[in-house]
Automatic annotation (TrEMBL):
InterPro entries on file: DNA_methylase_N6_adenine_CS, HemK-like, Methyltranfer_dom, N5-glutamine_MTase, PrmC_N, RF_methyltr_PrmC, SAM-dependent_MTases_sf
Alphabetical list of CDD domains matching this protein: AdoMet_MTases
Coiled coil: none
Key words, A-Z: Methyltransferase, S-adenosyl-L-methionine, Transferase
Positions of the Release factor glutamine methyltransferase N-terminal domain: 7-74
Protein name: Uncharacterized protein
Domain Methyltransferase: 111-186
Length: 213
């Protein structure tokens, strides 16, 4: 089956499951499956897909129709000006969290020399974004989950910031905080009773600990 027909079938499947943005999601997932950008898909719509690519794509569509977020399916999420690795061990970075970056940049000059602490760092997106914007700063991120620390370390390596940041597995009560010029955090804030009102892709796939602690 060629790319165009494969995409059309996928869109129908996602529409039946009432998945929003079914066309865009299908294009993104096909790009992931064949390891090409979306431009390639548009320019080669009549190209027949190899069986291994079709299998990979069908698996991704099957997961998406169940509500699994795109960011977890492609292990990537854009935040601020960078791309971060994410999986189900960390909360998916939200656009509204970028307000933290905006406020910090309003309060401090970009050439400021700050020691920054990030509590509940998750993917490290907040702290690492700040360190990219403020090259004279250094940071420490803490998270209660070891798997989150592994991911934040991976993102620091991708962004070439390992010489400016350290991540530690700890909760805030047992961490010797010390002195910092700036403390940032996007802590769990959703009440248990409110979880049922969230979108299914949030409730069933994102880490509950990151949502309501």
């Amino acid at each position: 089956m060629n790319i165009e027909n494969t995409l059309n079938n996928a869109v129908k499947i996602l529409n039946k499951s009432k998945i929003k943005n079914s066309i865009l999601d299908s294009e993104i997932l096909l790009s992931q499956a064949i390891n090409r950008d979306r431009k390639y898909i548009f320019l080669n719509s009549k190209e027949n897909l190899k069986q291994k690519y079709s299998k990979n794509f069908n698996n991704l569509i099957a997961r998406r129709r169940k509500g699994e977020p795109i960011a977890y399916l492609i292990n990537k999420k854009e935040f601020w000006k960078q791309s971060f690795y994410v999986d189900q061990n960390v909360l998916i970075p939200r656009p509204d969290t970028e307000l933290i970056i905006e406020q910090v940049l309003k309060l401090f000059l970009k050439n400021s020399k700050l020691q920054i602490l990030d509590i509940g760092t998750g993917s490290g997106c907040i702290l690492l974004s700040l360190l990219k914007e403020m090259p004279n700063c250094y940071g420490i991120g803490i998270d209660i989950l070891k798997k989150s620390i592994n991911i934040s370390n991976f993102n620091a390596k991708m962004l070439q910031l390992t010489n400016k940041v350290k991540f530690y597995q700890s909760d805030v009560d047992n961490f010797k905080i010390g002195k910092y010029d700036l403390i940032v955090s996007n802590p769990p804030y959703i009440e248990e009773l409110s979880l049922k009102y969230l979108e299914n892709d949030v409730v069933y796939f994102e880490p509950k600990l990151a949502l309501n602690g």
